[in-house]
User: What shape does this take?
Amino acid sequence: MSFLNVENLSVNYGVINALKGISFHVDKGEIVALIGANGAGKTTTLHTLSGLLKPESGTITYKDKNITHLPGHKTVALGMAQVPEGRRVFADMTVLQNLKMGAYTRNDADEFQSTLEMVYKRFPRLEERKDQVAGTLSGGEQQMLAMGRALMSHPDIILMDEPSMGLSPIFVNEIFSIIEDVNKDGVTVLLVEQNAKKALTIADRAYVLETGSIVKEGNAADLLNDESIKKAYLGE
Amino acid sequence: MSFLIYLINGLSLGSIYAIIALGYTMVYGIAKMLNFAHGDFIMVGCYVIFTICSTLSGNTLVGILAAIVLCTLLGITTEKVAYKPLRGAASPLAVLITAIGVSYFLENLALLIFGADIKSFSSVVSWSGLSFAGGELKIQGVTIVTILSSIVILIVLQLFIHKTKEGQAMLAVAEDKGAAMLMGINVNKTITLTFAIGSALAAVAGALLCSAYPSLSPYLGAMPGIKAFVAAVFGGIGSIPGAMIGGLVLGIVEILSRTYISSQLADAIVFGILIVVLLVKPTGLLGKVIQEKV
Assistant: This one.
């Protein structure tokens, strides 16, 4: 059994059939990319994994545990963190308070301190701005905060939703190299991206989502050279 | 000298509004709903104290504690039974109308149990108060207790919100329920806790209100409830210091205009000021601009 296994997952958004029985898996230590156009169902997939949305049918297994119907606030404690689309940092709170919220499920003060130092080491800018209100950070800094906040929960897997959205090319490169670093430290990554080229460059494997169905899957390197992918998603 | 007395009385009435407004503003900030039954929780608290202290001639402190416990349970139950099922409703009006329904339900329940005749409430504060300037300036005990209570409540509430994990979770839920859930915060539990705190405060406000204005009727919570709502909006709904300031300003304006202008026009002046403030600053004194999320 894979680390994270999704079997025949269907999700409805009101009357819209957002996911039509998709199946995929993520192995421990991998970076798996989920690419596709706007409205393909990428965010729906992540929200269902995190328990924010309830699936119509199908099963989600994580660390050999059926988490299909687990409420949203319980998935974090199992080691699954999400960096949501649009960052969604707590804008009125300071950077440090945001990071504390990330560690909400953790109760050990020493562990909190060491995790905080680890996060600050990875994002020195967050330490510099720890007392600044998060809403006043730039988009790239907010993305870093959202990632740092997710890391504060000590995740085994991070679900990343459109980390490059709205960022300048320099920040995009920085964010993607941080994702690779985080992965090298042993955190499995499921990456949802519209920037397919970037995503396929750092991913091990990828799935292509089109209007709620997976239409293609394979090694990221192979997909990068796939003619139909090139045409539809890489703009070549 | 008499001006000072009126000012202090205004401060005292304002403190009661402020304590009620805290309940309104917290529930609005966190659950994003207006609990229009909040004023009636005050009435329930008053009748509980009345029953225990006057009918059963029990201890005052026991009466107040019982009112706090019962109001807290009432708040939690109301939220669970009446509001929670509607949280995902297509229109926010559904839960608003339900709140008005709960308000009528409680008023009529009180009417059924206690009857329509006005009962006299004996003050929970037995201390007669302080005298200054050779008896010229006399401040009633209940007035002092009311003002002190509101200060203590504000401080404790601020400490709770800024220094405890649950308090921080409240702020997170107030800002973004989905993101809060992703942090592992149980949003439903946080909302329940908010209702519990707001309702407990309503019981305290009830004890103070009925001690200052000792006539008990099933509708006694309606007007203070609405005024406290105005205070919360005036101060910037969702803001705790805002509710406090709004309540105090409202109480002082009401007492001063009742004294110096006209007792009939006092309420009109209060609401007139609200309209002016909202015209100039639509988010209230301390309210923040809510950015539309794209």
Remarks:
- Chain B has one domain: 2-222.
- The mean pLDDT of chain B is 92.
